[in-house]
Amino acid sequence: MPGPRPGAGSPKLLLVDDHELVRYGVKSLYSELQGVPLTWLEADTLQEALALYAREEPVAAVLLDLNLADCKGLQGLRLFLQAHPAARIAVFSATQDEFVIRQARALGAIGYVPKGVVTTEMQNMLSALLWPRGGPQAAGFAPASALFPRFPSSAMYDRVAELGSRHLEILELVLSGCTNQEISDSMHLSLGTVKNYVSSLLLALDVKSRSHMVSLFR
Predict the structure, then answer these.
(1) Distance between CA 50 and CA 187 in Å, rounded?
(2) Mean pLDDT, to the nearest integer, of 16-38?
(3) Which of 17, 150, 159, 214 is deepest in the core (most CB within 10 A)?
(4) Neighbours of 100 (CB within 10 A)
C-alpha cells in the first residue's frame, strides 16, 4: 500500500502505545511534517487499534508498540497484519535488539522506530513512512535505510532471516523456553513438523543443541 500523495490532505497516523505521556509527546512534537499537518489517532491496546484502523481508513501508517496490555512482543504485529494485511506498520519500541528488529522486518513491518531516537531522525523516519516516493519538499524515493536502525553485517542473523517468518516465530518460542510439544500446541503444527523446523534452525546457526542456540541470543 503506497503512502499518501503529497498535497492529498492531512495524512492519518495511528499511534498504538499504552503510555499516555508517550502518545502526548509524539503528537505534540510532530503535529506537522514538511509543512503538512498530521492527524494522529491513538489507541492503548491492540484490540482498540484494530477497531480504530478499520473505522478510520485510510490510515497512512501505524506506529505499534511491542508491549501492550493485551499482547506482548511481536504477537501484536502478526495479529494486526492478519486483520489488516495492507497496513503499513512500523514498530515503535524502546527495545533496540538486533534480532527483534530483524524479526519485525521479516514478519512484515515496514519500519522500526526506536523511542529514544533524536528529533531529526524521527522526522526522517516519519517522512519515509508517509512519503516513500518522496515528500512535498523532497524529490525521489525515501531510502529504505531510513526506516530501520543500521547494524553491522551479521552472517548468523542473515542466515536465520533467510529461513522465513515461520522459522522466526518458532525461534522466538524456543528462545522463550517453550518445548517442542508446547510449540506444537500453540502453533497447531504436528510435533514432527516442529522438530523439522527446530533442526533447520540448528543447521542454519551451525549449532548442535537448543541450549547452544539459546545462548547465542543472550
Answers:
(1) 22
(2) 92
(3) 17
(4) 18
